């Protein structure tokens, strides 16, 4: 069952650098809490695959490891959060990534209950290693599990490297993270619903700590 704040909504932001495990943990959390997982990276990659106007704009920017403009991203997320399935809560993965996006998100969720912000912390050398070895399904886009050999076990698609996981592009993504996204730790850490999680542990242990942090943050915010 969903854990809820006083007003019934559970609004979660997964924060962290590229490769920290935001997507992995957002997926698990959303499934357990029956909430929509909203991944801006997935939305953009779907648009690229579908060949839409957004996809055309996004492809070169993503392949180079740069960020799309705040205006575009705020528009996408604003529209998504207004859909009926997100009114009772959501798990955001990959948004916000700049202070401008965070300020816009505060406006979007005004009156919907507090944001729980879970910051997944992983040392840089581990991030580089993880992304260098990551494989995704070229068809459905899911991250390949380490046990998968040959093909995607969900849809049978071919396993490939993400273009933006090349070593040089990962270095660029990490530079952009430090410059544009890391300031969000200061932005959010003054709030009682901010929690830091050690992401350099086996995924199941991180999952348990995500659960504990969410419960703790919800209790704290309900008590205020
Ligand atoms: P996005 O897809 O969001 O990329 P990212 O933030 O760089 O995150 P990743 O997907 O690389 O990593 P993750 O933290 O989700 O880790 P994951 O669980 O996959 O964005 C891509 C691009 O889109 C951006 O560069 C930008 O161009 C654009 N974009 C998106 N949002 C935007 C926005 N708001 N504004 C502007 N532009 C935007 O795990 C990584 C790997 O590690 C996997 O192989 C996984 O199996 C493994 N792993 C996970 N957890 C563990 C663990 N605990 N131990 C060992 N391995 C683990």
Question: What does the model show?
Answer:
The chain is of the alpha/beta class. The protein has nine helices and seven strands. The structure holds BIS(adenosine)-5'-pentaphosphate (AP5). The site of BIS(adenosine)-5'-pentaphosphate (AP5) has 30 residues, from helix 1, helix 2, helix 3 and helix 9.
Q: What features would you highlight for this structure?
A:
single chain, 224 residues, alpha/beta, five-stranded parallel beta sheet, two-stranded antiparallel sheet, 9 helices, 49% helix, globular, disordered N terminus
Structural class: alpha/beta
Radius of gyration: 17 Å
| Biggest sheet: strand arrangement | 2-3-1-4-7
Name the overall outline. globular
| Tally of contiguous helical segments | 9
Q: Uncertain runs with pLDDT below 50, 5 residues or more?
A: 1-6
Show the helix and strand layout.
Blueprint: E1 10-15, H1 22-33, E2 37-39, H2 40-50, H3 53-63, H4 70-81, E3 89-93, H5 99-108, E4 115-121, H6 124-133, E5 136-137, E6 159-160, H7 167-181, H8 183-189, E7 194-198, H9 203-223
Parallel strand pairs: 1-3, 1-4, 2-3, 4-7
Antiparallel strand pairs: 5-6
Helix pairs in contact: 1-9, 2-3, 4-5, 6-7
The protein binds BIS(adenosine)-5'-pentaphosphate.
What's a concise summary of this model?
The protein is built from nine helices and seven strands.
